[in-house]
Amino acid sequence: MNDIKQFLRSNALRPTKQRIVIAGYLFDGIDKHVTAESLSTELAKRKHIISLATIYNTLHDFYENGLLKKLTLSADRVYFDTNTDHHHHFYSEKEQFLIDINKNIKVNGLPKTPKNKKINKIEVIVHLD
Amino acid sequence: MNDIKQFLRSNALRPTKQRIVIAGYLFDGIDKHVTAESLSTELAKRKHIISLATIYNTLHDFYENGLLKKLTLSADRVYFDTNTDHHHHFYSEKEQFLIDINKNIKVNGLPKTPKNKKINKIEVIVHLD
DNA sequence: TCAACACTTTAGAATCATTCTAAACTGATA
DNA sequence: TATCAGTTTAGAATGATTCTAAAGTGTTGA
What we know:
By secondary structure, the first copy, chain A, is α+β, with helices and mostly antiparallel strands.
């Protein structure tokens, strides 16, 4: 709890009740993929009612501070990943699930980067049926 | 023109005025990436006013028949790619542009596919700044 | 050629994730 | 503990996309 407060402070985020609850859930040591909706539902189960606006705000605050990765895999919901190490994903659109690939993947044969651009990151998504 | 009609018929799509215009634009031999909005604008420039609903319908009809690839790269607009060969992309979220990578890319080091699942496709997105 | 019908198009309403607004609230600081 | 910047929130707004249901149009068989 005080850990969480410190954790938030060290990221220049004021440790409010809501952020503590959300961070406590997200960063409990088990990597997770959440959407605003799924997070809201999960917290509600634990009797923590936090407005959706705050959930969106908080996810973005965390994302902007590098505490979450953002994944746009389908047009109708954005996923946030608590695993911020560089990694890739298995994804099933049909079943809407996401699995981290934590092995080292190599991508070979890339053409040269367009003029005046820099590669930010390479994202590999393995789509499953 | 008759080519386009045949082309549509061969894909079990009735060659309506609107589909002929849209297919004529999309499949002119030059690969393109469009969104519903960009397509609508492009056709309007050419004095072809087609309702957005029809543009969405048609893009999906084409997509379902394998004439277009669908790319969900940002949450707020879906791209359709006239290049349906298996290929990858450079993508700049900031500048909202998309470049096909037509070279052969190899992805090495994938872990084994989750039980009872099959790989549908592997998508590599090279994010640029 | 044409009637008949299934397939299409369309305007406008509806949907739904996400963002915005402006007011109430609260952690931090002196 | 008063003050104020940073937060939370309900509810409205946004914007891409989908839906609805009515009008329009290819296609086909005679």
